[in-house]
Amino acid sequence: MSIPGSSGLLNAVGKRDMKFFSNRYVLALTGAAGIGGFLFGYDTGVISGALLYIRDEFPAVRDNYFLQETIVSMALVGAMLGAAGGGWINDAYGRKKSTLLADLMFALGSLVMCAAGGPYILILGRLLVGLGVGIASVTAPVYIAEAAPSEIRGGLVSTNVLMITGGQFFSYLINLGFTEVPGTWRWMLGVAAVPAIVQFVLMLFLPESPRWLYWKDEKAQAIAVLEKIYDSDRLEEEVELLASSSMHEFQSDNTASYLDVFKSKELRLAFFAGAGLQAFQQFTGINTVMYYSPTIVQMAGFTSNKLALLLSLIVAAMNAAGTIVGIYLIDRCGRRRLALTSLCGVVISLVILAMAFILQSSSSLCTAAANGTCQGALGWFAVAGLALYIAFFSPGMGPVPWAVNSEIYPEAYRGMCGGMSATVNWISNLIVAQTFLSIVGLVGTGLTFLIIAGIGVLAFIFVALYVPETKGLTFEQVEQLWKERAWGSRGNCQSLLGSTA
């Protein structure tokens, strides 16, 4: 069976018309896998509010920015390690077992944090939770993408991002709800064990990814799963595509190594695009906002812990709502256009946010204002900039990097490359989380946000130059796209694994 070149891609895509809500089985798989995304969001978001009360309980933390940053960022160290190993675990043992392992890490880490008697045990718990986050960040998008029809794949993978932002919103809600409860931060951090246990039980009854099964020569099981997704006519087409792709993989001895990613020109281009998207997602500031939004709100002049959490809850709700918009748009407008539009708004909103802090720090502008009216107005201006940032970021640069990375790599390298690019995400995330407060202390809040805005401009240029459109393409068509990018008209004659620069 021939795989269409770029000239035939749109025609092939036009014949596919499955709708987002037309198959409940696919939605059920997406929802169950998305609990990993929910835990990802909850465990990365909950620390923003818990940190306010951890500082109150532990004097050693209260006056030590480095220790505060370490409590926040140790989960990112774990996530970095989990993502790096999670790609290999996914390819060797499957998406299902990887999810079960992530759930064990989530539950154990949550219980350790809940019982922590000091900041260093708390840091250990954050490391364990981070391992679960890292594995889940690789596994959930790939599991969903491999079960999803190509024409709705972007929306379904973006549903996992909705679960991430929903988890962040829920963490803020939990933070607000436990403000008056004894042991405030312990409840905030410990409650994450519950959804981890729920997902573990659900996954025991769900199938392995059909593409992974087919790749591992479990063809009968793979087809049994595909029969629940496609009608008979479409099923035949999908099986033929799988057979064609798998034949190519087996001709390469069904082996994959990390060195192949850098030896193969096609893989190198794909990884550069995917990893670049993941890095820019973080360096344009999203998790700076999500981890430190209560702190940012307090920097803007709202000193009450409860008010800071309430305003941050609104920001988190906008993040989740914006992701829903992204789910609607990603398979209609396309990944590339959505990312470029998102980045334009991100840069504008970061400039607004920066100017609010710069003006607020200029005391001469407000000396004539009675009762701090000017400072209060600028504080609300900063909150508006924060909200505008989320409104632009969440539909585009939130879901697009995860969607693109779930679909741009060939089967034999999907877990491995997905893990590598997710590791880039977490390394970037760690750098941002570990340095944000220190940079603010060094150059000021306003200039810090101006620096992030400059990175947003670089991100726009990167996407415009290096990220292709993959809307509606099958995995096989995406593979052909990279061959043509690497070799031009010779792409039809080049082997993905045999080609080296």
Automatic annotation (TrEMBL):
Keyword list, A-Z: Membrane, Transmembrane, Transmembrane helix, Transport
The species this protein was found in: Urochloa decumbens
UniProt cross-references to PROSITE patterns, sorted A to Z: MFS, SUGAR_TRANSPORT_2
CDD domains: MFS_HMIT_like
InterPro entries referenced in this protein's UniProt entry, alphabetically: MFS_dom (IPR020846), MFS_sugar_transport-like (IPR005828), MFS_trans_sf (IPR036259), Myo-inositol_Transporter (IPR050814), Sugar/inositol_transpt (IPR003663), Sugar_transporter_CS (IPR005829)
Protein name per Swiss-Prot or TrEMBL: Major facilitator superfamily (MFS) profile domain-containing protein
Localization annotation: Membrane
Residue ranges occupied by any Major facilitator superfamily (MFS) profile domain in the UniProt entry: 29-471
